[in-house]
Every structure is written in C-alpha cells, then in structure tokens.
Design a protein that fits this description.
The protein is of the alpha/beta class. The chain has helices at about 55-70, 100-105, 115-130, 150-160, 175-180; strands spanning about 1-5, 10-15, 25-30, 40-50, 75-85, 90, 135-140, 165-170, 190. The strands form 2 sheets. Strands 6-5-4-7-8-9 form a 6-stranded mixed beta sheet, sandwiched between helices. Strand 1 and strand 2 form a beta hairpin. Helix 1 (about 55-70) packs antiparallel against helix 2 (about 100-105). The protein is globular, with a radius of gyration of 16 Å. It starts with a strand and ends with a strand.
C-alpha cells in the first residue's frame, strides 16, 4: 500500500511474492519541488501477538516490521509499536533507537487473547500525546478476531477522527469484513495468506 503526506510519497509493502512469507519495506520519493514542503509521518504499528499468531505468522510479521523499522531511519517517519496479546500496550515509543526496537520485537512471545480495543486506544493516545503537524498513520497487523468486536470498532472510529488506519489481515480465517470496517476505507484493507 502507499502513503502520501505532503509532497512525499511512501510505499509500504508487507508482502513480497519473490520470497516465502511476509516481508516488509518502506520506500519514499519526493515529488516536484514546486509542491508544498513534505509532511512528517507519525506511524504506529499495532501488532497482534495473541496465541493464534504462533509459528510462521508471528515470525513473518516480525521480519516485515523489522524491515520497515530499518528503513525509517534518517527519514521523516517516526515509528512506535503497540502490541496486544501476551503483552498489551506501548512496546516501542517514538524515538526508541533502531537496535533496541529490533531486539524488542524479535524477543516477543505470543499468547493469550486479542484485546484489540485496548491496543487501538493506546495507539490513539500515543499519536495524540505530542502536538505535531505530522500525518498520523496506524497500521494494524492481525490474524483473527478481537475479544470485543463492538468496542474495538468504537475505538477505531475515535482513532480515525485524525488518523489514517490501515488493516493488514494475515492467514486463513481472518474476518475480512470486520477488518474492512475498521480501516479508514475499504482500500485501506489488505490480506496475505499464511505460508505454513
């Protein structure tokens, strides 16, 4: 999927058909110098680490996020990561060193339920904690159903008041209709099958 903020165009890819599984990359290009000055991006990734993400799904999600993390260095993208499942809350705040983010993500363990409502609310708090003119973007990476679907939808509606929400479904059994409703528009929902 692609992100445009000001005169900067970003392409974030969580699936690369040339390799097995899920990968990730972030590319940017500057448009014409006659366009307005490029806008910073505050990006929060919401990563599902519930029990159903075990095996190749979480392994490939970690790899994808790691690749994106590496490519946000020295760009106008600030990155934070929120997890939900075995541990729920802000895992990596804005400004955390790249090496620390990569180590923290790699050491994540899966387990427990899917408290998506709490994760979305945390993402909103993180994005609104600082008064900046950055374009607010949240990317949800999940394989299944939240513990409380209605309240998660309500939290998503609040988030979308000032934040672009992209939903990325992983693996068979994803409720695509639900994730499409959560996303900013139906074009903000993406799916990849689990390679296992």
């Amino acid at each position: 999927f692609s992100i445009s903020a000001g005169s900067t165009h970003y392409q974030v890819c969580f699936h690369d058909p040339t390799i097995e599984g899920v990968s990730g990359r972030l590319e940017s290009s500057q448009d014409s110098a006659n366009l307005p000055e490029k806008q910073d991006i505050d990006l929060v990734i919401l990563l599902d680490i519930s029990g159903s993400m075990c095996g190749s799904k979480v392994k490939n999600a970690k790899k994808a996020i790691g690749n994106v993390v590496r490519q946000t260095v020295d760009t106008d993208v600030r990155l934070a990561i929120v997890t939900f499942g075995s541990q729920t809350g802000l895992l990596c705040p804005f400004g955390m060193p790249q090496g620390d983010i990569l180590t923290t993500v790699e050491n994540l363990k899966v387990g427990n339920g899917t408290p998506l409502t709490e994760a979305i609310s945390t993402a909103a708090q993180v994005l609104r904690a600082e008064s900046t003119n950055a374009h607010k973007l949240a990317i949800l990476v999940t394989d299944g159903f939240p513990d409380h679907g209605v309240s998660a939808e309500q939290a998503a509606q609040d988030l979308k008041a000032d934040t672009e929400l992209i939903c990325f479904g992983i693996g068979k059994g994803v409720d695509e209709g639900y994730l499409t409703r959560l996303a900013t528009t139906q074009d903000h929902y993406f799916f990849t099958d689990d390679p296992s």
